[in-house]
Amino acid sequence: MSRDIFSHDQQGARGARDTSTRRSVRQQTSTPPDTQDGRNSAPEAPGRDDTSEVREQDSTCDERNGSPRAYYIRDRAYLLRDSEMHSLKEVGKFRVITVSDLGKFAYSGNRERLEKDIRALAGQSLLRDKTLEISQKKTLRVVTLTKAGHRLLKNTNQVPDDQPIYHGLVKPREVKHDADLYRLYKKEVARLERSGGRPVRVLLDYELKRNLNRDLAQLGAEKDGLNAKERIAEKHGLQVVNGKIPVPDLRIEYETPELQLRHVDLELATRDYRPRAMAEKAAAGFSLYGRSEDASRLRRVLDEREITAGILTL
Predict the structure, then answer these.
(1) Where does residue 96 fall: left (phi above 0), alpha (psi -120 to 50 degrees), or beta otherwise?
(2) Range of 10-14, 23-27, 87-91 with top mean pLDDT
């Protein structure tokens, strides 16, 4: 969804490294140089300082029976099962996820286990479970991280250090669109995996805009020049279209079977999109998705504008 730049609480872009994440040597091909910053092939051990201490209770049966592990942050202990930690990581990467999508993809439809984990995480003030009114007749139940949940992920090395994580809602009016990005990610990842790809990082438009605007601001008066914009766009794996640099809703970085690092940019279009905006997104090379109820209208707009792009159904 095309949005203006706004202040956001980008969190944990330099968070602790997931010690279980496999990092192989990658050959850079199409992703700009800055996407590899902070990536190392060797994992790092959890850090300790005067204000926080991370300790885990080792148990050989944890993986077999789902027994909770204790994570200590400062003077607070959190008891979490593997499924609960996985949910925290998923929600943190996407900021907001619908409860129905979390149950489908993270719990394989096991509603009882999903609800049990949500209650446990909310009871420890790590997750916020909210039902929002998105229209006069419709509500949407979503989950987001709390500040404590974000701190736990960051301080216990649960995500790679270059994977941003977020907490709280920024624009409640856009919650349905933002929550659907998790489902969009899962659909595209399934397609990538069928071709032998492996996802390694996901970036939302918050992060992409932040990095892009940072570099544009450093140009000063030169920032309005076409050549300067093209250099900055290329650095971030983007393109200049009609004098602007379109930013996708979602970027997935992935490894090919040959261990080359590449990315795909995705846009979730809605029936409210103006034809010109859709044309710019298509010209920028984004893969366009639409909800099933919007797909036929979006395809008609593309045909009328003679835009050579397809609409994938979410």
Answers:
(1) beta
(2) 87-91
What mean pLDDT is predicted for residues 108-129?
Answer: 97
Give residue 192's identity as a one-letter amino acid code.
L
CA-to-CA distance for 248 and 93, rounded, in angstroms? 16
Distance of CA 302 to the CA centre of its chain: 27
Provide mean pLDDT across the span 288-305.
81
Q: How would DSSP label each residue in the chain?
A: ----------B-TT----TT------EESSS-GGGGTT--SS--PPP--SS--------TTHHHH---EEEEETTEEEEE-HHHHHHHHHHHHHSEEEHHHHHHHHSTT-HHHHHHHHHHHHHTTSEEEEEEE-SSS-EEEEEEE-HHHHHHHHHTT-S-TTS-B--S-S-GGGHHHHHHHHHHHHHHHHHHHHTT-EEEEEEEHHHHHHHHHHHHHTTGGGGGSHHHHHHHHHHTT---BTTB----SEEEEEE-TT-EEEEEEEEEE-TT--HHHHHHHHHTTPEEEE-HHHHHHHHHHHHHTT----EEE-
Whole-angstrom Cα distance, residue 136 to residue 95? 24
